[in-house]
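Handout, page 2. Input:
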Amino acid sequence: VQLQASGGGSVQTGNSLRLSCAASGRTFSSYGISWFRQAPGKEREFVAHIRTNGGSTYYADSAKGRFTISRDNAKNTVFLQMNSLNPEDTAVYYCAATRLTLGIVIARNYDYWGQGTLVTVSS
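Output:
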């Protein structure tokens, strides 16, 4: 599976962005997909996860109530709708794929990674 993240940009506090993660490969629907982010000088952190069929989603506390992850298996794409953005959300956002159902918040459990898309939120 090859992943390509897009949709990042520069916005002001309170605005929204929608990230996309486009995947190649016929087995996309068999992978759970997560978004991670990495801010300058910080470790990569989990943001959100969606199960293979989109039936279950999980969020970091920082994302709950503001971010929504979704997927369209017919289009091999996962989305991250981010609302009410603030400067603490500034980071490079990565999508990643895993066949595991446990340990989804741990980056090393992911088999494939996209190249990242930069989100900058200014006050």
